[in-house]
Design brief:
single chain, mainly alpha, about 85% helix, about 0% strand
Length: about 80
Amino acid sequence: MINDTLFFMLIVGIIISAGLLLLFVWAAKTGQFDDANKMLNNPLYDSIEDLNDAIKKEKNLKEAKESKIESEKKKEEGKASQN
């Protein structure tokens, strides 16, 4: 009885999985995931403030990474000098 139930669940799982795979393939082939207009028109809606904010964020991120690397180097040097 348990074997029959497991076999039935396996068959149902395979059928559902195959259906979802076919649905995904159909959607990809028919262009359901394409949004070329959004990608092309995005820069048109960026204001100067948005662009400046993006530049500041990138600069802050770069500085944070550099300071983290420097602090790690100092920790390593401190450990090396103690040994």
